[in-house]
Amino acid sequence: MKSVLYTMMLAAFLNPFASSSLTMSFPDMMREFGASTNDMAWVVEAFLLCCTMAVIPAGKLADIYGKRKLFYIGSIVFTIISGLMCFVGSVEMLTVYRALQGIALGIVYTTSMSILTLSVPVERRGYAFGMIGGMVYLGLSLGPALGGFLNYYYGWRSIFVFTTLLGVVANVMAFRSLHKEWVHTPDSSISMKSLLLYALGISAVMVGITEWVRFWWSVYAFVVGLVALSVLGYVEWHSKDPLIPVRIFVSNLGFTMSSVAAMMNFSATFGVGFVLSLFLQMIMGFDSRMTGLILCIQTGIMVFLAPRMGALSDRYNPSQFARWGMVLIGLGLLSMAYGTFTESMAIIMISLAIVGIGVSCFAPPNNNLIMSSVPKTYIGFASSTISTVRLLGQTMSMALIGVILAHTIEGMSALQMMEYNSTVALVVFGVICLVGAIPAGVRNMRN
Distance between CA 383 and CA 371 in Å, rounded? Predict the structure, then answer.
């Protein structure tokens, strides 16, 4: 079990690290390629969009052809694409490669969660998911710091050299530790109609949310996405071999509510670092290095505490950990809002610690609830659901920030509006988490 866990931990690290490590390199890339900020925004959006679109089909394909096989494909493709990105010569090619990298990592993350669930005994799953959660937070916190270091001393291409090496290590570990093929529905197939409806729906919804503030047509894209997903839901409800088993959302309340709670959690927490980064530098006057160190209070606690909370959720009711974790996050964000309103660094730092404890209490037990609430035939779909709600939540979080930061009040200066809007954003995020505590507490586990 340990060798599989270590392999999946590295896989869990790859996704957040790959998505966050380039942020400090964008100015250098813009100068080299003559690119605009909108060009760089599409580099980010292409990664997130393709990763989101890949996870559901990847879960289905893994059930048909084998989870180990799909994991190998995703990991090998990620490594090859990372190597090719060292030689990219235009922002257009960078965007294409990042899209392919997103697809590969969507496959890796989805299959890794399934493999971990099937490899670890039920009584140890909380601990395992806690370790995975710790690696996700480590990737999120190390990404900008290590990416910035590599970019400063060796140039932005060195980041892809590093991720290529990580990919090679992940492949070696996978070939040495994964000796079993998990195939649950070999006679199943993927409907091309369902696949096209899913791709259209999820991409239109994500683009509509992401571009909500910038473009007038975003609302129409969002509506088209909702219509496509509604049609997909109708088709899948009546399908004997669905791509998305929508009936499970009606029949399995625990699975549905835990998934909703996860999306609300990511909607509320993903954008906190962005809001605080702007506030601490533009209002409080800290430089980027000190701002990064302050934000590490939350991530450091999560890296340390998440495995331990996961292990405790193996012994006690995980739904209660998830519920009170959401409550702690909500209270931490509301107190953080008070800290930004009063410009109190002590309150902000204490609030970051509270949020870190809350996320550690919520994430591993809630993932355990999702993966343990379905029979083995739906493990692939459950894993895909975790990935999908995470990415949708991240997208919604940034969309909320865009809407809030675009708000203006006559008579207020730009800095005053930044301070006011930062407080409003944290209040909104805190309320979302407090409401999210309701679905987080629903329990309906199956061994």
Answer: 7
Best CA proximity match to 361, nearest among 322, 418, 316: 322
Cite the DSSP H helix spans in 155-271. Answer: 157-177, 192-210, 218-237, 247-251, 253-269
Burial (CB count within 10 angstroms: exposed 0-12, middle 13-18, buried 19+), residue 176 = exposed
pLDDT digits (tens, 9 = 90+) for 20-73: 777 667 778 888 888 876 777 788 778 888 888 888 888 888 888 888 999 999
Angle in degrees, CA 305, 307, 309, rounded to 5: 65
CB within 8 Å of 2: residues ≥ 6 apart? none
User: What is the signed CA dihedral for 319, 322, 323, 328, rounded to 10 degrees?
Assistant: 160
Amino acid in position 402: G
What are 170-191's pLDDT values in tens digits?
999 999 988 888 777 777 888 8
In Å, how far are 33, 213, 228, 340, 403 from 399, measured between CA atoms? 27, 8, 21, 21, 6
